[in-house]
Amino acid sequence: MSSGTWLPLAIAGVTMLITAGVWVPVAVATRGGRRLLATGVPAQAVVESVTDTGMSVDERPVARFVLAVRAADGEVYRVTHRQSLPRVPMGILGPGTVLPVKVDRRRRERVRIDWAAWRPAPAAFPAPYPYNVPR
Q1: Partner of 116 at 20 to 30 A CA spacing, among 6, 11, 45, 131?
Q2: SS3 assignment for 5-69
Q3: What span, in angstroms and rounded, lies between the C-alpha atoms of 111 and 8?
Q4: Is 27's pLDDT higher than 70?
Q5: What digits encode the pLDDT tens for the residues 44-100?
Q6: What φ, ψ does residue 108 adopt, rounded to 5°?
Q7: 120: part of which helix (H) or strand (E)?
Q8: How far is residue 50 CA from its own chain's centroid?
């Protein structure tokens, strides 16, 4: 192989490796999230905090949530979770917002916010914080 042909091939190969290294984990996480929404146990969670991660997926911002999740047995526990947001202003998702979530049957720390089932509370009537989570 002449020196003029290996350099473009090497650049193309490195570019493909970097692209695969970035997008394969994103694709796996997205597929796992869809599976969790389909098979997870329905529960409710209260937002304790939400912060922007500075990342986006499909032009949707990814946020870091600290959630107080109420399990089906009534136990409340805290989870830190990252997920993309629908096209809704981030200000609506402040502390105290109640969100529907799906919880993994085997690993309760794995949750997924069910945006399709979420209905924002009217701003004039904010919901009181319903859970007392030990710190």
Answers
A1: 131
A2: HHHHHHHHHHHHHHHHHHHHHHHHHHHHHHHHHHHCEEEEEEEEEEEEEEEEECCEEEEEEEEEE
A3: 44
A4: no
A5: 999 999 888 888 888 888 889 999 999 888 889 999 999 988 776 566 778 888 999
A6: -65, -15
A7: none
A8: 11
